[in-house]
Design a protein that fits this description.
elongated; mainly alpha
């Protein structure tokens, strides 16, 4: 498995855990207590609090889909879909128009992470260790997919052009 796929797999696992935490938070019975592993009192960090905020469903928060509609997915589900995409398609040979699709999808994930990181730190002033972990993963994937692979493709094209002219 490639480095990119390994990082995406970690993101997938974190997204699954975030989905579990959000599900638990929305389905607590009266008197039932639940403490997520990412709720760390010593750091004053609470992922379970962040997941229940309106920004936890960015598609409806931004007005892209109606609130409480079928497409009003939690950010963790969108992240799960993104990491699944990376796992399935990142190493697959691409047709000419599709070779830009992976960098585009990765760029959208990175822009989303930047917006959510801003919301967490500046607007909400909340610390979410799980959220920041996925932001770091998205940054690594963005660099690897949008820049590093593209640069290696440019280098290999230059090399093949030099060999043809020699």
């Amino acid at each position: 498995m490639s480095f990119v796929r390994n990082i995406a797999f970690v993101g997938l696992i974190l997204s699954l855990y975030a989905i579990f935490v959000e599900y638990k938070m929305h389905h607590l019975r009266p008197g039932e207590e639940f403490t997520a592993l990412c709720d760390i009192d010593a750091l004053q960090a609470s992922c379970s609090t962040v997941f229940t905020l309106p920004v936890g469903k960015l598609l409806s928060y931004s007005g892209l889909v109606p609130r409480d509609s079928l497409l009003d997915l939690p950010n963790a589900v969108v992240g799960f879909l993104y990491y699944s995409w990376v796992l399935l398609f990142v190493d697959m040979p691409m047709a000419s128009f599709r070779k830009y699709l992976n960098p585009l999808v990765s760029s959208l994930a990175m822009l989303t992470s930047l917006f959510l990181a801003y919301q967490l730190t500046v607007v909400l002033k909340e610390l979410c260790v799980l959220c920041w972990s996925t932001h770091v993963i998205n940054a690594i994937l963005f660099y690897q997919i949008a820049f590093k692979r593209r640069l290696s493709g440019v280098k290999s094209k230059r090399k093949s052009l030099k060999q043809k002219t020699a």
